[in-house]
Structures are given as C-alpha cells and as structure tokens.
Amino acid sequence: MVWREDRSPASLYNPAMRKAIILSIGDELVLGQTVDTNSAWLSAELAAHGIVSLYHHTVADDQAAIADAITLASTRSELVIITGGLGPTDDDLTRQALADAMGVELVLHEPSLKVIRAFFISRGRNMPQRNRVQAMHPAGTIVIPNHCGAAPGIQAQLNDATIYVTPGVPREMHDMFREAILPHVTEGSADDDATAHTILTRKVNTFGMGESDVADKLGDLTDRSRNPMVGTTVSEGIVSVRIRSEFTDSTEAQRELDATVQTIEEKLGSIVFSHDDASLQEMLVPLLIERKQMVATAESCTGGLIGKMITDVSGSSAVYAGGWVTYTNEMKSSQLDVPAELFEQVGAVSQEVAVAMANGAVAQSGASLAVGITGIAGPDGGTVEKPVGTVWIGLAWKDGAGDIQSEALRFHLPGDRAAVRDRAAKCALQMVRFHLLGIDLNTIRWARGKR
Fold it and tell me: Which of 62, 66, 109, 357 is the most buried (most CB within 10 A)?
C-alpha cells in the first residue's frame, strides 16, 4: 500500500482531522454477490461530523484474516467501525476474530442472552441453541444493545483505536450507529479546535456532455487545492460533479458549499438536472405535472425501458398516457402508421422512422408530446453506415394550433447492449425535459460526434 501525503487545504489526509477505518465482513461482499452499501453510508455519516474515512476494507469470513485486518486498522486510526459477522452461524466470526486480536477469551453476557431469548419468544419461537453465541463478547469489551434485531454490538479498545462492531443488516447498523456510536465519537469534538471539522458534500448531476467537456467548463473549480474541492465522476452516461466543503465552522462550510454549487450550475447550465441521487425521470415527472403535459412513448431498440423509467416514479399516471413497443417493421406500420416505404428507402434506424413513430404515438394516444426511438443495440446488426450503438430519437408535440411538430437527434452510444439501451432511454428523457424547458435539443452533445 502506498501512502501519499497531501498538504492541500482540502486534503482528505489533513493531519488535524479525526480519521476512521471501516471494515466490512462477509464472503458475499468479497465475492461480489452483495454490494457493500454500509461502508458508503458510514463514510457519509462520519464526514458530516468531521471524521474522514481513510479506507474501506472488505474481508472474507475467515477468522485469521478478520483478526489481522482489525489489528492493522487499530494501529492506523483512532476509530474503527466493523459491520457484519455477528450472526449465529459458523461463518459469523467477527466476535471471535476481535477476541483473537485483543488476546482475550469470549465471555457470556447474560443480559444479552435474556434479550435474545425474549426476541424469539416475541415472535412465537424458542431461541435456537446456536443463537447463544450472539450473547458472547470478548472479555473487557462493552456490549451495545440492538433495538432492531437479535445481535448486540461491541465496543472495544485496541492499540490506538476505539473499535465498534455492528450487525451487517443495514437497518440494525443504522440504528446502532445513530443511537450508541455517533454520540460517543462526536463527544467533545465541537469544542476541540485541533480536531473540529465539518465536511459537507453534494453531488450535481448532468446529462448531455462528456466528462472532459464538463471539466473544461468547470475550469479552475477543479483545482485540487481549492476548498470546497470539486471533482467529476461518470456512471452510465451521467456525469456527476462532486463537491466537498471542509471547514472548522459548519456555517462557513454550508455557505461555501452553496456558493460552489451555484457557480457550477451557472457554468454548466441546462445539462444539470438534479442534486445527489435524484434520477432524470424523477426530475422529469414533476416537470410534466407542472406543465400539464401528457407524454407517450414509441420504442423499438429500448424495448419499453423509457416507459418503465417514467412509471417507476410515483405520480407518473398523471402524465404518462402509455406506449408501444414496436420491434418489427410491420408493427411500426400497423400500430403507429409509419409509412412502409420508409423501411425500403432509408431503413428502420433512421431520422424519418423515428419521427414517424413519435408522430404516430401523439396521434394515436392523444398525448401532447411523444418520443419515438429506433436503433441498433447490438451486439450484432450493425453496418459500416450504421454501426452498433446508432440510435435515432424523434420528438413530436402538438403546437398551439393543434398541429404536430417534430424533431430528431442521432446518437452513437458506447457500450454493450444493456448500456446502449439504458443510455438511449436517458437521451430520450433529457430531450423531453429540454423541450419542456424551451432549450435547444442540440445542447445535448453527448455521443453525437459520430455521424
């Protein structure tokens, strides 16, 4: 492991800051069968109280490996939080590993045993004998009550660290952290000028430009010595601008965070669609409701994905008329009145067919606007002229006179079949959003360079 010292004002390794290490235990995490959401949640909670996570470490259900990870973490940080491995089965080894690291034996905590028995009785069951181990803890440690489940937590001291062990079940971990751990780890920190810090974060989500274009527009905001610190990440076509504001004073941290977010929005303009975890569709549905617009969908390559995204949002029944999945040319003609000659003249993946699909969806549904989408999702079906990832999206709407107007954009989307479909659906959602906001559709530059 390489340790890098960073003396910039916004450094994660500011020597004045309190630090934590998070260990997540479980074969299912190491094997990728379950995503470790606990570490991300804990890091965000700690950061909000001025404690930065040095690293996350995922460890398999191996007693020696867990003990080694605990020992190392206890020499690197003053705070270690461990989640998982407190169940009753043979592969739940965290309490035994902690005892090994401390060089002590496990002892029975009779009050916990009573609580566990009562937990099962309240559910009309007798406690299985194997659950007795959940009332065991390393000698000299403190038992943390579990108000949501059976397994109590543990508080221990080892080397330079205070160690907290919680169940891996997120609801139980969240409750134990907030009720029993957070009050201890933040006690007195607000009055200690040497360690008092507030770290506030926000994420600004964009769709319509590539990551390098977004970074160019941000300019000096991404200087790594700046506080608040600004950086970009990209996932499934969404470019997110992440801001971290770190100050000793919470009011100043909030003020600087808000000011930076405002500057980012001014620089990036209409491609910004949300903050934090709100999706495109979660922002589009309220906009449709506000504008009293009804949308319909006509889909080929996306197979109903646009309609699914819209109807995933509560309240979408007020703004989504319905849709068609017309995979064959015959269905496009019979259901959406796409002229059959277009398939011979320009092909199914074309501007003309996308527009005709959108026009047909408006006419057939009575909606005020519609999208029509046709493309080649792959992995086969592409040609030199129309390679895999080629997608045409048409947008049709009724003008003030009730006549149907239309426009279309061509995209060349990267990735495998699932990625092409997902990104094509997002392009369609952003096109509808831009139309409602009166923004030129050509503002969407992402994946449109290849003609």
Answer: 357
Expressed in percent and rounded to 5, the helix, strand and coil fractions of the chain are 40, 25, 35
CATH number belonging to the domain at 200-275, selected among 3.40.50.1360, 3.30.70.2860, 3.30.1340.10, 3.40.50.300: 3.30.70.2860
In this model, does residue 10 exceed pLDDT 80? no
CA diameter of the chain: 83
C-alpha 230/C-alpha 321 separation (Å) is 40
| CA separation for the pair 230, 9 (Å, rounded) | 13
3-class DSSP assignment, residue 150: coil
Supply the CATH classification number for the domain 18-191.
Answer: 3.40.980.10
Residue 442: strand, helix, or coil: helix
φ and ψ at residue 56, rounded to 5 degrees: -110, 140
Q: Where does 280-443 sit in CATH, by number?
A: 3.90.950.20
Strands 295-299 and 320-325, bridge-based pairing: parallel
The 10s digit of each residue's pLDDT in 153-169 is 999 999 989 999 999 99
Contact between residue 342 and residue 372 where contact means Cβ atoms under 8 Å apart: no
Q: pLDDT for 288-305, tens place per residue? A: 999 999 999 999 999 999
Q: Residue 29 gets which letter from DSSP? A: H
Cα separations in angstroms, 351 against 299, 367, 374, 406, 428? 14, 21, 9, 11, 14
Instruction: Give alpha helix (H) positions in 366-416.
Output: none
DSSP output for 93-143 = -HHHHHHHHHT--EEE-HHHHHHHHHHHHTTT-PPPGGGGGGGEEETT-EE
Tokens of 268: 């990036």
What is the bridge-based pairing of β-strands 198-206 and 51-59?
Answer: unpaired
CA atoms within 13 A on the CB side of 376: 18
Write out the residue limits of the CATH 3.90.950.20 domain(s) in the chain. Answer: 280-443
Strand order in the sheet with 238-247: 229-235, 238-247, 198-206, 272-275
Q: Residue 25: pLDDT above 70?
A: yes
CATH code 3.30.70.2860 region(s) in the chain: 200-275
Mean per-residue pLDDT, 16-28: 89
Residue 181: CB atoms within 10 Å:
22
